[in-house]
Amino acid sequence: MTKALSGRQAQAARNDEVILAAARAVFIADPGAPISAVAERAGVGISALYRRYASKEELLRRLCSDGLARYIEESEKTLADNREPWLAFGAFLHSLVDADTNSLTQRLAGTFTPTPDLWRDAARAAELNQAIYARTKEYLRPGIVVEDFGVILEQITSIKLGDEARTNQLRHRYLTLMLEAMHRPGERPGGGSELPGPPPSSDELTDRWRA
Predict the structure, then answer these.
(1) Are the beta carbons of 45 and 39 closer than 8 angstroms?
(2) Mind giving me the DSSP string for 62-130?
(3) Of the residues 18, 29, 141, 174, which has the maximum number of CB atoms within 10 A of its CB?
(4) CB 133, CB 146: distance < 8 Å
(5) Which GO terms describe its molecular function (predicted)?
């Protein structure tokens, strides 16, 4: 049975979650932002932030470590999924869109020095990718390789339109279209997938240009 956290420990854990959420938002928007911007967004003093993370680089490593851990978790769940492999693969990519791990890859790559632990987790993620690819390969159109998965997800997670909920809806819409394009020509398991949500309106597209 997991021991309950004391009041002080629970508060520290909540503060850490707030700091990490703030750091993720700040650094995905601008990897060059100062660590003080994280403290401001989180509503904590800079000294409180430094007590948890001694430097911006340490904070970036933590974000990427958490992202890799989530990616590995979703990959392992996919390999344990007993459904038809193409359906499991589609669910895997949709779960990664919800987790938004590729936004971290896209924005933070090259901004800090990875630790041996991060390299180890990255190697594990690559190993799982290969296993998922091997399981799904017969359903993929010729020419698609495992390295395409990450780039496709980076394209999907570059979509930002409206608020967070609308952005997520549109990402799932275009991932569904991308999955249709990735499948080998012929009948698809489960038939054609209904596209999530309505397409972007002209007003939504225009709003991006308003100051």
Answers:
(1) yes
(2) HHHHHHHHHHHHHHHHHHT--S-HHHHHHHHHHHHHHHTHHHHHHHHTTSSPPPHHHHHHHHHHHHHHH
(3) 174
(4) yes
(5) DNA-binding transcription factor activity; transcription cis-regulatory region binding
For the domain 62-207, what is the CATH code?
Answer: 1.10.357
Q: How far apart are CA 190 and CA 182, in angstroms?
A: 15
- pLDDT, one tens digit per residue, over 65-84 is 999 999 999 999 999 999 99
Q: Tokens for 112?
A: 């800090």
Does the structure show a pLDDT above 70 at 3? no
Q: Where in the chain is the domain with CATH 1.10.357?
A: 62-207
Contact 142, 65 (CB under 8 A): no
Kind plus residue range of the DSSP H or E element containing 1: none
Domain with CATH 1.10.10 in the chain: 1-54
Lowest mean pLDDT, pick from 5-9, 16-20, 145-149: 5-9
Q: How far is CA 109 from CA 3, 26, 33, 112, in A?
A: 37, 15, 15, 8
Side-chain half-sphere CA neighbours of 87 within 13 A: 9
Predicted model pTM? 0.83
Helix, strand or coil, per DSSP, at residue 48: helix
The closest alpha carbon to 188, from 196, 176, 198, 197, belongs to 176
